[in-house]
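This entry is passed on directly below:
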Amino acid sequence: MQNPPHDPGSALAIRAHYRQSESRSARLRLLVDTGQELTQLTPDAMRERVLARACAFLAMDHGVLLEWDNEGGISTTARHGPPARLLSLVAVVDRSLKAPCWQELAADGLPSMLQVPLRGSDGAAFGALLLANSVLLRAPDNDDSESLQLLATLLAAHLENDRLLKALLTRDRTLSDLVNRLFRAQEDERKRVAYDLHDGLAQTLAGLHQRLQGFAGRCPTLPDTLAADLQAILTLAQHSVGEGRQLIAGLRPTVLDDFGLSKALDKEADRLREAGISVQWITRSEARLPSQVEIALFRIGQEAINNILKHAQASQVQLTLELHDGQASLRVQDNGKGFCAGQMLDAHDVQHLGLATMHERASLLGGRFTCVSVIDGGTQLHARVPVYLEGASQ
């Protein structure tokens, strides 16, 4: 049997097709493999990896990654190859490029160079990938240039995400610092107002009540209507003294400064007892804590008691204050009507605003706050914060 005649045209076509397929496969590997690697690398390692891969893809022996800021300053963030000639690449970078650009005799000792822009999501370039070779090479075809542009775009997206994340973290730290300052200023103002009320209005009300009592004791027998009026005035004065003391205690309870968190929380729990709600301490640590911790946990407990009185319709409340492994833990649990903790928070809902404030107070101290509530099954609040804070008074 005779072999079919040899067809050189067919052989060349098959070879060309094979080389095209091999080239497409190489471009695809470049993008897929690099894309998978970038998700595991730090920003600096990303830059080095992309630059090294780009140089290897085009067989270039020099490369730099340049980035510039809003003020126009240029930084070299990655390098590949002997450093002696890399400085000449910085001098020829074109920051106005919108697409890859091949140049010959562009830099001293580097007759072949490709510039690939790094563009952000707004389309503006914030950097460039410069690849060069010490021996004159043939210009890459359009497919290779497009592949390198896709590689640069992939890197640019990761770098931009990193920048946005850092900006967000900085903004979050700034916001947390402002909230922390606000809470401290609020506590200082509450303390000042509480002492002003104690030394001023409260003393005046107490003196007025004593004078009225003295007057009533010395007053001759009055007609029934006048006696009833005098008794109503005495009752009103006594009630005003009591309200003044409660107002001062709510602003800044002296028992917190004098006797610590446990006594202050138990004093707050008297409001529950006066409302006919049973209060039970499960665990009660009497240890003194840093001032910041005591204030934060007291305000969390105070807000929890406010919510129980206003919303819970509970008959029993359990309190737990523990100190364990350098963490102070406060739990407030009631058997009230509960609520759906996962529902969208209404900015005008005071109860949910209080929960957000409690969460923020714990978070500012590096702690955690959780709320577990079940409809008709009660609510449990748990705040846990580190006891030993940097710069905190012991």
About this structure: The CA atoms of residues 159 and 375 lie 46 Å apart. The chain has two domains: 10-169, 260-394.
